[in-house]
Amino acid sequence: MVTIALTGGIGSGKTTIANRLAELGGVILDADVFAREAVAVGSPALRQIAARFGQQVLLADGTLDRPALGALVFGDEEARRALNDIVHPEVRRLTGERLEEVLADDPAALVVHVIPLLVESTSNYDYEEIWVADAPARTREERLVEGRGMTREDAQARIASQASDDERRRIADVLIDTSAPLDETLDQVDAEWRRLAAAGLRAPETQTYGV
């Protein structure tokens, strides 16, 4: 097995890179998807969140009201740590379960862990390579405003709350410039895949977990 961590700031194009790697044969393990699974209705994590933050973070159908929870933890470091202490262990458990399934099917799989907040986490960075989806903050801001309907103030606040571009670049083994036109970004991904293949890595059958 070969493991790659793929990270990048909000609006940086991580999904574009992950989707291309899946097309090429990578096995994608997406931390954001596991985080949603971790707080599914009836889950222990969701019960803990409701106990910690109140029933107002639940919708009428019992699902998590993400905007309500986000409003409580955004800008509140203590609340954010409390939430992470609830969700992160469950994400690690779910990731481990999926990884066991992958290895049982193909011990030589190339696994891509999509971890948006890799720099902000306490990870030991135990990956063969770290790939960073790299685009200037201004470009990401425009994407959030135009593509996700955020206000400019909200987009700027979300970007400012994450690690800086320089912090992510410092841990990168591979930088993928996602400010380039889409075909050029995909060409970069393809070139890195060919590099890995030339190093003797076997491209597994395409299969995607968590996306």
pLDDT averaged residue by residue: 90
Category from helices, strands and their pairing: alpha/beta
How many β-strand runs?
6
Number of helical segments with 4 or more residues: 9
Rg, rounded, reads 18 Å
Distance between the termini: 20 Å
List keywords for this structure.
single chain, 211 residues, alpha/beta, 9 helices
Topology (SSEs and partners):
Layout (H helix, E strand, L loop, with lengths): L1 E6 L6 H11 L2 E4 H8 L5 H10 L12 H8 L3 H29 L4 E5 L14 E6 L2 H12 L3 H9 L4 H7 L2 E4 L4 H17 L8 E3 L2
Parallel strand pairs: 1-3, 1-4, 2-3, 2-6, 4-5
Helix pairs in contact: 1-9, 2-5, 3-5, 6-7
Written overview of the protein:
- Strands 5-4-1-3-2-6 form a 6-stranded parallel sheet, with helices on both faces.
- By secondary structure, the chain is of the alpha/beta class.
- The C terminus is likely disordered.
- 29% of the residues are buried.
- The chain is globular and about 55 Å long.
- The longest helix has 29 residues.
